[in-house]
Amino acid sequence: MTPPSARDPIRIMLVDDHVERSASVEEKLRDSGFEVISRLPSATGLLFQIEQHQPDLVLIDIQSPGRDVLESLSVVNHHNPRPVVMFSHEEDPAFIEQAVDAGVTAYLMDELNPDRVKPVIDLAIAQFKSYQSLRKALDDARTKLASQSVIEEAKQLLMAQRGISEDKAHKTLRTLSMDTNQSLPEAARSVINILGKPSNNAR
Q1: pLDDT for the residue 1
Q2: Distance from C-alpha of 90 to C-alpha of 93, rounded to nearest angstrom
Q3: In angstroms, rounded to a whole number, what is the distance separating the alpha carbons of residues 18 and 25?
Q4: How far is CA 121 from the centre of its chain?
């Protein structure tokens, strides 16, 4: 999800099977500065609706959110995550865990109260941003660790096959990186692909 600018209102998709309440919730949301871009009476075709409208946040309060709802949210969370607030009377811990795994940012075992919806949304957005920051930091750390592992393997190959020191092997990789306009990990992979191949004379 591309976050809206400070001047743009948060675009919300409201999914509520209680028609009268959803109208009241929509009014409160608009009064609070949010933009309700779609109000759905059920979660039927939820994945299509999200892809069609591209909301910044999805607000759900339906009587019995089923597996298809969680599957749709899981697909969205995998490809283009965004905050999801779900109100439900479902108290089963297994279902709640599945909902969180599917990308539900805030799960509340209560009815959607029009007068309390804004702070819930504000908190969900803050939690979502915090989680995404942690997720990015973890992904960056994993990428860095993988790159370091590749570089180390390439250095070991250069040291073993050319009889050079670790410092010389590292300088060789840096030179190759600059000469071929590759990143250091890419240059290291090239070395591994070449030096790591078995000799044609090997049996």
Answers
A1: 54
A2: 9
A3: 10
A4: 18
